[in-house]
Amino acid sequence: MRNAIEHAAIVARGQPIRPEHLPPAAAKLDLATPSPAPEIQGLLAVWAERAFRNQPDPADATLYEQFLQLAEPPLLRTLLEKCGHNRAAAAQILGIHRATLRQKLRKYGID
Fold it and tell me: Does position 39 have pLDDT exceeding 70, yes or no?
């Protein structure tokens, strides 16, 4: 997921991240339902503002890790559910190795 987010951020070049900015494997997700992206982006902006206020020294900040701990668990749970708990399929959609997915699931106590 980290690689997919970094890839999308680079491709988006400072613009809002859209499905077409994701790597091909991640872009295959079903996007037929209306996108909650504007609401999510707004919530993330509020969270980031609060996080910056609480961490005055950016050199000590682990904001990216905090973001991943916030975003990864629900994404991984939902993806596993959609894939019928098939870890190989979920890893393929995320564009990561199964072992990496296994580590992330262990890290968050999922499955």
Answer: yes
Domain boundaries, the chain: 2-108
pLDDT in tens, 49-75: 887 777 666 555 577 788 888 889 999
Q: Are 16 and 41 in contact (CB under 8 A)?
A: yes
Helices 37-54 & 63-82 angle (0-180, nearest 10)? 150
Listing DSSP states for 6-43 in one string gives HHHHHHHTTSPP-GGGS-HHHHTS---SPP-HHHHHHH
What would the two tokens of residue 111 be?
Answer: 């499955």
In Å, what is the CA distance from 2 to each residue of 37, 67, 82, 84, 100? 18, 10, 20, 22, 11
Return the CATH fold of 2-108: Arc Repressor Mutant, subunit A (1.10.10)
